[in-house]
Design brief:
By secondary structure, the protein is α/β, with parallel strands linked by helices. The protein is about 30% helix and about 25% strand.
Length: about 260
């Protein structure tokens, strides 16, 4: 009844279904791996949030890189803001409103500096750098969250008219007269406090994301491919069992009985 599935056409169809189901299954597992990675990362971030701030030089020694395990570490640093080399990050939105992040280097006692994201200001995004209030003068102590450089590169991270499109200590390195530590800090508190109205950076989203439901979708597609193969095979078998007309005569079961 089902010998037709041994034909070249049906063998090719079966191979296609197996490959499709395998790919969809693998993509589902990939999404579950991403979910596991995200949950592990959430645990690391939560632990950083609960910890007391540590000195920046201990969290990020000179030459060290900010990685996923150190990102969102709560740090404290003391230094002097270098307003002359301040930049704004354009095309930064909050709740649908256009604006810019304000990035100011903080020069430490060692002579090195760390980029500080002082906050966000609502402004129209255009070629002109927005006017922002200056930070406190003299020595300040800041607390905030250590962040990795933005993944962008090229012209996006190089200052142009006092503006960039992404934050990167590597992109800023050639535009300041001192060494920059890796990454940057999202400012949360500082002493003395600033007189500006910059909005602090929000905490990261610690949800699970869509990965679990994406995995279910891929596994559903894999199941659908296998079920579809057997459905088409059954339909083909039923079609082959139907009686056929020969030389213009109806099948025997359709002929009128002889009187």
């Amino acid at each position: 009844m089902y010998r037709f599935i041994l034909s070249a056409r049906w063998i090719g169809f079966a191979i296609f279904v197996v490959v499709l189901a395998a790919v969809c299954t693998r993509l589902g597992l990939w999404q579950m791996h991403k979910l596991e990675h995200r949950l592990d990362r959430n645990d690391v971030i939560t632990a950083h949030f609960k910890a007391d701030p540590i000195d920046l030089t201990k969290a990020l020694p000179a030459g060290a890189k900010v990685d996923e395990t150190s990102e969102w570490t709560r740090v404290r640093a003391t230094g002097t803001y270098d307003v002359e080399h301040e930049v704004t990050v354009k095309f930064t939105t909050r709740d649908g409103a256009p604006g810019a992040d304000v990035i100011t280097p903080l020069v430490l006692d060692s002579g090195d500096a760390i980029l500080i994201n002082r906050g966000w200001v609502e402004t129209e995004n255009n070629v002109t750098r927005p006017d922002v209030s200056e930070p406190p003068s003299g020595e300040v102590t800041v607390e905030g969250w250590l962040r990795q450089n933005n993944g962008a590169g090229g012209d996006a991270v190089k200052p142009n008219g006092g503006q960039v499109r992404a934050v990167s200590s590597e992109g800023m390195a050639d535009f300041v007269p001192y060494d920059l530590l890796d990454g940057y800090v999202n400012l949360q508190e500082q002493t003395p406090p600033a007189s500006d109205d910059l909005a602090a950076q929000p905490h990261p989203e610690l949800g699970q994301g869509p990965h679990f439901f994406y995995a279910l979708q891929w596994w559903f597609f894999a199941l659908l491919a296998v079920v579809g193969y057997f459905w088409f095979a059954r339909a083909e078998a039923k079609e082959r069992r139907k009686p056929t007309r020969i030389d213009g005569f109806a099948p025997a079961k359709e002929r009128s009985p002889v009187s």
